[in-house]
Amino acid sequence: MTAGWDRARTIADAVLYEGYLLYPYRASSSKNQSRWQFGVLGPPGAAESAFGEDDTVSAQFCVEGDCATITLVLRFLHQQRRCVEKSNGDGDFEPVAELRTDTNAWLSWDEAVETELTFGPLELGHLGQSWTFQLSAPADRAIETVDGGRLLRSRRTLHGRLTVTSEPGDGLQRLTIVVRNTTAFAGGKDDAIATSMIGTHLIAEVSDGAFISLLEPPEWATAAVDRCRQHRCFPVLAGPPGDHALLLISPIILYDHPEIAEQSQGALYDSTEIDEILTLRVMTMTDDEKAQARATDPLAAQIIDRCDSMSPQALQRLHGVLRDPHAGLIPEIPDGVDWWDPIADNAVAPDTDAVLVDGVRVARGSKVRLRPARRADAQDIFFAGKVATVTSVHETVDGDHQIGVTVDDDPAADLHDWYGRYLYFAPDELEPLTTPELGTERSSTWQQ
Known about the structure:
Layout: H1 5-17, E1 56-64, E2 69-87, E3 93-96, E4 98-100, E5 105-107, E6 109-123, E7 130-137, E8 140-146, E9 149-155, E10 158-169, E11 172-181, H2 189-194, E12 197-207, E13 210-211, H3 222-226, E14 234-237, E15 246-250, H4 275-283, H5 287-296, H6 298-308, H7 312-318, H8 342-346, E16 354-357, E17 360-363, E18 367-370, H9 378-382, E19 387-395, E20 401-407, H10 413-419, E21 423-425, E22 430-432
Antiparallel strand pairs: 1-11, 1-13, 2-3, 2-6, 2-9, 2-12, 4-5, 7-10, 8-9, 10-11, 12-15, 14-15, 16-17, 18-19, 18-22, 19-20, 20-21
């Protein structure tokens, strides 16, 4: 496993449980009467009969490397019905909606069990291949004895099929992943959800190759990426920035390299959650409401306990973190110092200063694409679309910024850098490049 695997799994867990249980986390809440919002693969025919969701999810993405190998991890929740039964005292039990004792309470409720299936490694080759795997999540039945009764947990058998197809083209391998629920459907809403795959998503890991970002592909791969089609999901790079070895095929819209906010104390499961607001609302629940939530689901009980025990310092962290957006940028000249004063010169360092361009920090060594404005002269326009390397960042006495660059495919770029002869552009004439792009090869368009 790569170094980013734990990070990807953390994001995948958030996807798996997104919308699992909504505030106020009680079975009696109308919001929790119809659950499982994202990534649900219903049994065949459930969607057509309006009792469930579509039975298929599919994704296409590109892999660089003819000899790459892919490992796929399919994850979903399997509904588990929890029935509460009260003891009659003579060895018999009868189903009840709720069972209460002096210290505990239990409700009849639908829980869920995590299911994870691994496939591969699959060797892609350079000619294209296809694989088909049968999926199965077994039925189960378990009894837990509690004060005054018992909890009967049961779940149905699920069946499915995973197909993987690789097709070479444009110097890449295009993979098509299709997950289909094939479980027999008897009809009705209850049967549909009992035989659904919930929160379905995949994590893909590549060896001896790299995934191509579908959101920010390199220019040479744009045409291949544009031909990729998605159905009810979208693949994003799941490792840390710069890592192209992990892909999360998610039913929730995400950016590349997503991460859990470091201030978050734990999952809250509610869709589009805002941790601070939900935590404060949990804290304002009455003791009876909290007891009902604990009786609803063990995960709800964890939320209540975590919020009740949260320290003021942890709650303050949820309020947000103030970060200086100008940290590491061109420093401010001290008040009372004129521009011509040597102290003003000492406050700046073009080799290490930076500016923000479209929210991206640009400093010496940054890669940019040149987009000369209409005000530019003819020579600047000649460089339109060229990839360049930032050499220095300057500020004029009027407070304007100028960024020095050398053009990557200029045969004399090294010479210009050696004696400090740079081209200068304003920040709004630059497009930061956050992904590797071609542009370092010498171009035949330059004239000797």
